Amino acid sequence: MTERYPFENTPLPYPYDALEPYIDEKTMHLHHDRHLKAYIDNLNGILKKYPQLQTLTLEQLISAAGQRTGKDWTAIVRNAGGVYNHRFFFSGMCPEGKKAPEGALAAAIERGFGSLDGFREKFAEAALSVFGSGYAWLVSGRRGLCLVTTANQETPAGAGTPLLNLDVWEHAYYLKHYNKRADYIGDWWNVVDWDAAERKYDRGRARPRGGSSSSHGSRLP
Predict the structure, then answer these.
(1) pLDDT tens, 162-198?
(2) d(CA 147, CA 150)
(3) The predicted structure's pLDDT at residue 207
(4) pLDDT score at 216
(5) Which of 12, 40, 141, 220 is least surrounded, with the fewest CB atoms within 10 Å of its CB?
(6) What distance in Å separates the CA atoms of residue 198 and residue 203, rounded to the nearest whole number?
(7) Residues in the chain with pLDDT < 70?
(8) What's the confidence (pLDDT) of residue 2?
(9) Sheet hosting strand 134-141, strand order edge to edge
(10) So what's the pLDDT on residue 208?
């Protein structure tokens, strides 16, 4: 995600109805065209006042604004996080993808969680544990894979390389699944883009290790 100001609501990498029957077309329209667009419009509106910030990427904006205090800085963190998290979520899904990871990521999941089923169980527990709105993440850190939850539009900044995220704001699933978050989580496994997660994992392993392992969210065992 190297795009800079003015940010644009780039198209989904698949048709709106491509994730049916697991995630419905109407939800994808509303989620992408209204919810994500609102974060983009808000972020551009704030950055218009700050030319010195207009060359920064989303990640740089989140990092820089997170170290400052004040109304506009808080708004930048929240809206940049909203853009980052939504784009990560949408790009982490695909129609007719493979049902399990392979290669180095599959081996890491085996080491960290005992099995793919064990990972899916722990990830679902993490997603269900989010109180209100937020995300569940699979992150590759210095000590291996870990699960991280974030509230609202916070990001797992500093925790490592994010591999997967699941949006558990109600607008992500309420039209189809009503208040049944567990059913939504179960359906989401059918559209996970494991190829994309494997590429992120491989790139993360190739980077030099360093930095903080802390996050804005709550780390789960």
Answers:
(1) 999 999 999 999 999 999 999 999 999 999 999 999 9
(2) 10
(3) 76
(4) 42
(5) 220
(6) 9
(7) 1-2, 208-221
(8) 52
(9) 161-167, 134-141, 144-151, 218-220
(10) 64
Token pair recorded at residue 118: 């064990």
Whether pTM exceeds 0.90: yes
Instruction: Determine phi and psi for 140, rounding to 5 degrees.
Output: -100, 110
CB of 171 closer than 8 Å to CB of 89: no
Q: How far apart are CA 139 and CA 162, in angstroms?
A: 4
CA separation for the pair 50, 54 (Å, rounded): 7
What is the residue-wise DSSP string for 58-86?
Answer: HHHHHHHHHT--SHHHHHHHHHHHHHHHH
Residues 152 and 78: beta-carbon distance below 8 Å? yes
Name which of 10, 68, 79, 74 is nearest 42 in CA terms: 79
Q: Is 161 exposed, middle or buried (0-12, 13-18, 19+ CB in 10 A)?
A: middle
Whose CA is closest to 92, among 13, 7, 205? 13
How far apart, in whole angstroms, are the C-alpha atoms of residue 146 and residue 167?
17
Q: Where are the beta strands (DSSP E) in 35-160?
A: 134-141, 144-151
For residue 184, the Cα-to-chain-centroid distance in whole angstroms is 16
pLDDT of residue 209: 57
CB-based contacts of 216: which residues, under 8 Å, 6+ apart? 66, 150, 154, 155, 156, 157
